[in-house]
């Protein structure tokens, strides 16, 4: 074990892991986080809190993680390179480790143009691959990015994201390899709706033996409405929603659509469980976190391992 | 006036690893003025490379390398010598390096770092841009600039938002990392993209470093 992370323990034990995502509020209200964390408690091995997702100002990921931790769940701090240079990133790495957080997910970040402060100056001093390497060197080499020694290293389980549906498709596998070489311990993928394309990507991952070097958690998310499915298909960069999903949602009475969305999500999880090299799922039910227990149970993933 | 400085010789030799024949390109414009890629420097570079065991198949000096039409006319005369070479080493600012890589289907190595474009970087009409970052990265990218053309200045490949060859930020803008991928694939040099490029030294850049010391 490299860390005290519950997620690491679950994965190392060969269990199919379950993580879920929490969207923090656009306010200083801690109750929002408490409510969501309470719902997830007992149903997931760890939870992520997004870091200014879509470049909208929200409560800091590390702060919300600390609140959620009150419910006994292992938090994963998300950290993007959009808003912090290498100085700020390393300070936050030391800080979260000191607060008893065991996991970090290293991301480039959505461009500031998409958010509610498009006038902001993007930082992008380092990219996600470089950030992974920085955290890895801080933990394993006890070194800052500039080479100076650290007396007490941050013991963090290092995560990275990958989008199998972005272009150029063939490079997506090499990019994952780069992230592994930089030091990623686990990967959380973009939401999978196109299972066939995901299988193709996993096939290439297995060809290179990468699934043996990193734990891959496939992203999933229930869809609430036909409109939301169409929006994701056309408006969100790097998202692949096949027409069958939309047709299936359109095929049920309007009040049944959310239920059908949950069923689709469970079906996808069941298919993902069968793919060799997939070590778990990451449920991104943003602003619909209350569905997570139902999804976990329906997918036969309850109860979660206890240590 | 574009201010460029030659990269350290060892760094240039590192770029030529595994290649034996190289063609040199210099510029009689700004690079000659700043003694980073004029005739004198090119001849000296040829001597040093040969001394280190490389074969220089030839060299060309373009009056204004940042002018694509002019550069195309000039380089046409050297087609045979360029074809013979494994790669091309260009001694001028980042825009000039990008012009050469646009014109020639070969690996192009930057021989200089562009310290400042003297406020002139908006004058180019083509896609080639140089943001005077002071530590040219075109070596890793097949001669397409991710600093000036990627919305997030990424150095290790496309972000998760690249789709249909377009940048996530604007469907009108090509994703330069997609173009880099295609170019390196075409040149059989994808290994350049597999290498982890370390964080960039921004202290030598006019954009992020101290404002006046370069003049
Ligand atoms: S889509 Fe391409 S050009 Fe745009 S930010 Fe991502 S990598 Fe850079």
Write a brief structural summary.
By secondary structure, chain A is of the alpha/beta class.
Give the bound compounds.
iron/sulfur cluster
Instruction: Give the fraction of residues assigned to helices of chain A.
Output: 40-55%
How many structural domains in the coordinates of chain A?
Answer: 1
Q: Which strand order spans the largest sheet of chain A, edge to edge or round the barrel?
A: 1-2-3-4-5-6-7-8
Strand order of the largest sheet of chain B: 3-2-4-5
What is the CATH T-level topology of the domain at 3-138 and 199-204 in chain B? Rossmann fold
Mean pLDDT of chain B: 89
Main β-sheet of chain A: number of strands, strand sense, barrel status?
8 strands, parallel, barrel
Name the biggest interface: A-B, 36 and 31 residues
Write the topology of this structure.
The complex is a heterodimer of chains A (about 300) and B (about 220).
Chain A: H1 6-12, E1 17-22, H2 30-40, E2 46-49, H3 61-69, E3 74-80, H4 86-98, E4 103-107, H5 128-141, E5 157-162, H6 169-182, E6 186-191, H7 195-207, E7 215-220, H8 226-235, H9 243-250, H10 257-273, E8 278-283, H11 292-298
Helix pairs in contact in A: 2-3, 5-6, 9-10, 10-11
Chain B: E1 3-6, H1 9-15, E2 21-27, H2 30-33, H3 39-51, E3 55-62, H4 68-76, H5 79-84, E4 87-91, H6 94-103, E5 107-110, E6 112-116, H7 146-149, E7 166-167, E8 170-174, H8 176-186, H9 191-194
Parallel strand pairs in B: 2-3, 2-4, 4-5
Antiparallel strand pairs in B: 1-6, 7-8
The structure holds iron/sulfur cluster.
Protein model, in words:
- The complex is a heterodimer of chains A (307) and B (215).
- Chain A is of the alpha/beta class.
- Chain A has one domain: TIM Barrel (Alpha-Beta Barrel).
- Chain A contains eleven helices and eight strands.
- Chain A has an eight-stranded parallel beta barrel with strand order 1-2-3-4-5-6-7-8, surrounded by seven helices.
- In chain A, α6 links the parallel β5 (157-162) and β6 (186-191).
- In chain A, α2 crosses α3 and α9 (243-250) packs antiparallel against α10 (257-273).
- The two termini of chain A are 14 Å apart.
- Chain B is α/β, with parallel strands linked by helices.
- Chain B has a four-stranded parallel β-sheet, sandwiched between helices.
- Chain B starts with a strand and ends in a 21-residue tail after the last helix.
- Chain A binds chain B through residues 81-82, 86, 108-111, 113, 122, 124-130, 133-134, 145, 161-163, 165-168, 171, 174-175, 177-178, 181-182, 190, 237-238, and chain B through 151-165, 168-170, 175, 178, 181-182, 190, 193-194, 196-200, 202.
- Iron/sulfur cluster binds next to α8 of chain B.
């Amino acid at each position: 074990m490299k860390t005290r992370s519950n997620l690491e323990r679950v994965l190392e034990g060969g269990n199919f892991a379950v993580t879920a995502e929490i969207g923090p509020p656009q306010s200083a209200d801690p109750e929002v986080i408490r409510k969501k964390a309470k719902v997830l408690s007992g149903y997931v091995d760890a939870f992520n809190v997004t870091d200014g997702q879509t470049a909208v100002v929200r409560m800091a990921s590390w702060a919300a993680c600390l609140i959620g931790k009150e419910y006994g769940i292992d938090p994963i701090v998300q950290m993007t390179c959009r808003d912090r240079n290498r100085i700020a990133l390393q300070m936050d790495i030391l800080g979260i480790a000191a607060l008893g957080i065991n996991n970090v997910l290293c991301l480039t970040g959505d461009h500031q143009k998409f958010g509610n402060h498009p006038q902001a100056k993007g930082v992008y001093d380092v990219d996600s691959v470089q950030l992974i390497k920085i955290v890895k060197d801080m933990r394993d080499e006890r070194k800052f990015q500039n080479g100076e020694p650290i007396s007490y290293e941050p013991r963090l389980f290092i995560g990275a994201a990958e989008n199998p549906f972005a272009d150029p498709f063939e490079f997506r596998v090499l990019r994952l390899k780069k992230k592994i070489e930089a030091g990623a311990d686990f990967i959380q993928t973009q939401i999978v709706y196109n299972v066939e394309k995901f299988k193709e990507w996993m096939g290439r991952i297995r060809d290179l033996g990468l699934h043996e070097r990193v734990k891959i958690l496939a992203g999933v998310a229930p869809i609430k409405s036909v409109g939301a499915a169409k929006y994701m298909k056309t408006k969100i960069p790097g998202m692949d929603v096949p027409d069958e999903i939309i047709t299936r949602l359109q095929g049920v009475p309007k009040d049944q659509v959310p239920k059908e969305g949950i069923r689709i999500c469970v079906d996808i999880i069941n298919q993902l469980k069968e793919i060799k090299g997939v070590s778990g799922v990451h449920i991104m039910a943003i602003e619909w976190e209350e569905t997570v227990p139902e999804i976990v149970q329906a997918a036969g993933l309850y109860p979660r391992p206890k240590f | 006036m574009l201010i460029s400085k030659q990269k350290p010789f060892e760094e240039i030799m590192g770029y030529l690893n595994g290649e034996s024949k190289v063609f040199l390109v210099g510029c009689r414009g700004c690079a000659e003025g700043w003694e980073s890629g004029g005739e004198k420097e090119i001849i000296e570079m040829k001597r040093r490379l040969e001394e280190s065991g490389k074969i220089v198949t030839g060299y060309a000096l373009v009056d204004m390398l940042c002018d694509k039409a002019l550069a195309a006319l000039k380089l046409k005369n050297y087609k045979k010598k360029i074809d013979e070479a494994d790669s091309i080493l260009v001694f001028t600012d980042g825009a000039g390096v990008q012009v050469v890589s646009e014109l020639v289907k070969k690996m192009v190595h930057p021989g200089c770092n562009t310290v400042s474009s003297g406020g002139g970087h908006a004058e180019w009409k083509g896609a080639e841009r140089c943001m005077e970052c002071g530590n040219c990265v075109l070596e890793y990218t097949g001669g397409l600039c991710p600093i000036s053309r990627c919305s997030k200045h990424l150095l290790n490949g496309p972000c998760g938002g690249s789709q249909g060859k377009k940048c996530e930020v604007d469907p009108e803008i090509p994703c330069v990392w997609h173009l880099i991928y295609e170019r390196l694939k075409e040149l059989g040099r994808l290994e350049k993209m597999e290498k982890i490029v370390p964080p960039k030294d921004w202290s030598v850049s006019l954009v992020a470093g101290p404002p006046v010391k370069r003049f």
